[in-house]
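Input record (one chain):
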Amino acid sequence: MMVLDKGSVRMYCHDVEALTLALDIGDISDMDTDINARQKLLDELFADFPGMPDRIGETNRHALARLQEVKATLELVRMWVCAGNPAKQCGLFFVCRLLLDARTPLSVVRVPEQIEKDNGIGEIKMPQPPVIQLPQDNTIVSLYSR
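The corresponding structure, as predicted from the sequence alone:
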């Protein structure tokens, strides 16, 4: 996920762009020259979801067009990346490569893996306390209650 910041603290949904390229899968050697080749892979990955590959492709084209715009406007690009998610890491490297020749500011926010796994936005869920099963009477006791 990328946010294009126009200098304001308040962000709006039109300032957020999604870039789903799945660069952790398949041949990426032609990414500099042919983004449409990536669409073929997305068509295969999301074949069981009617209309989804086209929506992802449209979203990607819009995000890439915005990234080209920020090269001229020098708007801040902020990316949320989870270190444990190869697709997000590859997306970060792709954006870095795309902005390499520009003076566009880029900041990266590290997303904790627990938020990524829970698919949560804006909150961190604390894991449940561990429980153990006592074989004698089959009661469940929290380790924190001792």
